[in-house]
Amino acid sequence: MFNTAMRQKLDAGEVAFGTFFKVGAPSLVELIGRSGFDFIIIDAEHSTFTHAEIENVIRTAELVGMSTMVRTPDASEANILHALDSGASGVQVPALRTAEDVKEVIQRARYHPVGERGWARACRAADYGFPSAKGYVDHANRYTTISVHVENAAMVEARSRRSARLRRLTSSSSALAISANHSATQAKPIIQRCSPRSSVRLMWRSRAANMSALSPATPRTLKISSRAACATSPGNRI
After folding, report:
1. Are 151 and 179 a contacting pair, CB within 8 Å?
2. d(CA 140, CA 121)
3. What CATH number does domain 5-231 carry, 3.10.580.10, 3.20.20.60, 3.50.50.60, 3.40.50.10700?
4. Model confidence over 61-111: pLDDT tens digits?
5. Distance from C-alpha of 186 to C-alpha of 178, rounded to nearest angstrom
6. 16 forms bridges with which residues in the sheet?
7. What confidence tens digit (pLDDT) does each residue in 111-148 have?
8. SS3 per-residue string spanning 199-217
């Protein structure tokens, strides 16, 4: 079944290190894994991955002991299913705006009785049907990691979100800045405006959170201790 190393680290309160991955090059996946990373986020939103390429990246990551999150193109049921059925450890879903959007994502990523995920036992995530159906469903509902990408002001300000059951949140400082009509390189004003009552509250209510930073100063601006660190460029130390 799918790799759970990242999830087990987070559940144990440990730090998991990962990076975004945007190119269909299995050798690079191996290099990242051999370098000691715990997970990669396969970016299917801002890249040209096909479903088959995503599955092969996941397969390669597992060979070097890494977990895989797939950043889906959107929140559609089909894209979430493709990622999870291919054996991803979880999904990171972008462009959500309300707590209802988040609840729908959770429903699409979990099997009954927790959610409404479509059933396909003969998929890679379920080892093509060799394990028992109950064993696979229990494993998937227990270990599938669901992350939502907080990248617009509407999502930050959504007060009713605290009812959503999330394991992980990701925030993009540049996307937040753009949503507030700032330049992508001027993230500090929107981060400072949102963080005291919204961003920080949103982060600490999740089991783990990480932020894509524009500079090493971003985590200090937010004053958040994150258990999932994601490197976005060589200059960012999170």
Report:
1. yes
2. 11
3. 3.20.20.60
4. 999 999 999 999 999 999 999 999 999 999 999 988 888 999 999 999 999
5. 9
6. 228
7. 999 999 999 889 999 999 999 999 999 999 999 999 98
8. HHHHHHCCCEEEEECCCCC
Angle at 10 between CA 61 and CA 190, to 5 degrees: 95
Token pair 């049921």: residue: 77
Cis check for the bond before 196: say yes or no (omega within 30 of 0).
no
The CA distance from 155 to 196, in Å, is 15
SS3 string of 107-131? HHHCCCCCCCCCCCCCCHHHHHHCC
The neighbouring-strand residues paired with 208 are 168
- DSSP reduced 3-state for 150: strand
State the angle between helix axes of 99-109 and 77-85 in degrees (0 to 180), rounded to the nearest 10.
Answer: 40
160-180 pLDDT, tens digit each: 445 444 545 555 545 544 445
Mean pLDDT value across the chain: 77
Question: If you search the block for the tokens 């059951």, which residue do you land on?
Answer: 165
